[in-house]
């Protein structure tokens, strides 16, 4: 059974909101007056052709890049525009897993997961390790906590990266094509872990993925992007079985 994903009393139902967000690189408009929101506890998947602006949205939420226009709100607070000090606080609510796992190569698996909770959140090392051990169990890597990233497969490294993101107890987990850099035989293990997290926790997920089966399984809502705009949005059974927009139909027939 999925856990109850209703927001706690007093928490806004809407965890992430983009209003009229425009992002340009040079004279190219990558996101064009984009509006959308994600409710707490929901799993939203962004699909669409390469270059349609999906990753840019995740990067905006991670404050790795800034919009040219518009407003971004997280958990009822403005992330953009906002003073730098507030941004640092709001960012703690957001975790991200990248295509390339970006683990610290010189640290053990355990240390990769405990480092930020200790240095950024101020947890004691014992508390951080206890949480890290729970998370390593969740991602099926309890045996590997003393290894360095290079001793693990790509799929295992990505599962460490997922545990590392969750260790910060984010309210929103951003997943950017997390299986794209993996050998095909390692993809299923990572997707299974994410399915499990989607089922067993109340975390809000925003995923960019080319894995349509996975998108269908975990999503409450699928957003189809084209040229920086959402051309169609709906539950997965609708988007994958009865797409209405011709760009959605073209995209799905190319990837399925
Ligand atoms: P998607 O995730 O849908 O493949 P992206 O958000 O990665 O699309 O990219 C959208 C467009 O923005 C692409 O044309 C890409 O080349 C361009 N782009 C992304 N980041 C940069 C950057 N830092 N500088 C210039 N162009 C960029």
Q: Report mean pLDDT, rounded to a whole number.
A: 94
Helix content: 25-40%
Tell me the Rg in angstroms.
18 Å
N-end to C-end Cα span? 29 Å
Query: Element order, helices and strands?
Result: EEEHEEHEHHHEHEHEEHH
Write out the strand line-up for the largest beta sheet, numbering strands in chain order.
6-7-8-3-9-10
**Strand portion:** 25-35%
Given as residue ranges, the uncertain stretches (5+ residues, pLDDT < 50) are: 1-5
Give the class from helix and strand content and strand pairing: alpha/beta
Bound molecules: adenosine-5'-diphosphate
Q: Largest sheet at a glance?
A: 6 strands, mixed
GO molecular function, one term: ATP binding
InterPro entries: AAA+_ATPase, ABC_ATPase_HisP-typ, ABC_transporter-like_ATP-bd, ABC_transporter-like_CS, Ectoine_EhuA, MetN_ABC_transporter-like, P-loop_NTPase
Keywords: Amino-acid transport, ATP-binding, Cell membrane, Membrane, Nucleotide-binding, Transport
Membrane topology: Peripheral membrane protein
What's this, in brief?
The chain is of the alpha/beta class and 256 residues long.
Question: Can you give a write-up of this model?
Answer:
By secondary structure, this protein is an alpha/beta fold. It has a domain of 66 residues. The protein has nine helices and ten strands. A six-stranded mixed beta sheet has the order 6-7-8-3-9-10, sandwiched between helices. A hairpin with a 2-residue loop joins β9 and β10. α3 runs parallel beside α5 and α4 packs across α5. The longest helix is centred in the last third of the chain and has 17 residues. The radius of gyration is 18 Å and the shape is globular. The protein starts with 13 loop residues before the first strand and ends with a helix. It binds adenosine-5'-diphosphate. The site of adenosine-5'-diphosphate has 11 residues, from α1.
């Amino acid at each position: 059974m999925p856990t109850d994903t209703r927001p706690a009393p007093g928490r806004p139902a809407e965890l992430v909101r983009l209003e009229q967000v425009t992002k340009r690189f040079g004279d190219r408009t990558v996101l064009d007056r984009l509006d959308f929101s994600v409710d707490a506890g929901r799993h939203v998947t962004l699909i669409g052709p390469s270059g349609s602006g999906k990753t840019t949205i995740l990067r905006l939420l991670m404050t790795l890049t800034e919009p040219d226009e518009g407003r971004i709100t997280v958990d009822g607070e403005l992330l953009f525009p906002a003073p730098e000090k507030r941004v640092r606080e709001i960012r703690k609510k957001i975790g991200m897993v990248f295509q390339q796992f970006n683990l610290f190569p010189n640290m053990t698996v355990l240390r990769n997961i405990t480092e930020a909770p200790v240095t950024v959140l101020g947890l004691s090392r014992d508390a951080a390790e206890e949480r890290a051990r729970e998370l390593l169990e969740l991602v099926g890597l309890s045996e590997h906590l003393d290894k360095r990233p290079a001793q693990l497969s790509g799929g295992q490294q990505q599962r460490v990266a997922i545990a590392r993101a969750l260790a910060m107890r984010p309210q929103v987990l951003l997943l950017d094509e997390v299986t794209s850099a993996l050998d095909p035989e390692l993809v299923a293990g990572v997707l299974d872990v994410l399915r499990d997290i989607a089922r067993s926790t109340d975390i809000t997920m925003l995923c960019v993925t080319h894995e349509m089966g996975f998108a269908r399984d975990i999503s409450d809502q699928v957003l189809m992007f084209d040229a920086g705009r959402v051309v169609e949005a709906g539950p997965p059974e609708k988007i994958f079985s009865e797409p209405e927009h011709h760009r959605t139909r073209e995209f799905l027939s190319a990837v399925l």
